[in-house]
Amino acid sequence: LEEKVMEMELSSATVELAAEAVGVIPARIAKTLSFKKDDSCLLIVTAGDAKIDNARFKAKFGMKAKMLTPEEVMALTGHPVGGVCPFALKEPGIQVFTDVSMKRFETVYPACGSGNSAIELTCEQLYETAGSQEWVDICKGWQQENEPLPLV
């Protein structure tokens, strides 16, 4: 998918900056969050307007949601904060999960390893390219109503 990668002159290091650079609403930015898991990490890809629900995270993964430091993110993923993507990872075996918060969009825009890159992918392309373990429902703040979407 390398030919689809967009490199922008503007920074895309935050959801808001990425949305502005790509020309979409912030919710369509697929942000990749890095959480500590033993000596490694796990990655959760969510919609730009979603926030991790700590109780749901703990229920799903059996641990507290503790984000990595910027140094740990770079060391484990090979990507800097603001450019973390769920593919082309430095360390093998990092588990990736995709959140259902993105399923309301036909396409989303994850970063591609730098603070000024993005790629437009369908949710299924993102899931497959990332080698995702499964769809999860562990976010809050993105739904009008508090009903979770069914997992597919």
Q: What do these coordinates show?
A:
This protein is of the alpha/beta class. Helices cover 20% and strands 25% of the residues. The protein has 4 helices and 10 strands, in the order βαβββααββββαββ. The strands form 3 sheets. Strands 8-6-2-3-5-9 form a 6-stranded mixed sheet. A two-stranded antiparallel sheet has the order 1-7. Strands 4-10 form a two-stranded antiparallel ribbon.
Primary descriptors:
single chain, 152 residues, alpha/beta, two-stranded antiparallel ribbon, 20% helix
Strand content: 25-35%
Distance between the amino and carboxyl termini: 24 Å
What helical percentage do the residues reach?
10-25%
How would you describe the shape?
globular
Question: Strand pairing plus helix content: what structural class?
Answer: alpha/beta
Order of helices and strands: EHEEEHHEEEEHEE
Oligomerization: single chain
Question: Low-confidence runs (pLDDT<50, min 5 residues)?
Answer: none
- The radius of gyration over CA amounts to 14 Å
| Average pLDDT metric | 91
What count of helical segments does DSSP give?
Answer: 4
Strand order of the largest sheet: 8-6-2-3-5-9
Q: Would you report the number of β strands?
A: 10
Q: Largest sheet, described in full? A: 6 strands, mixed
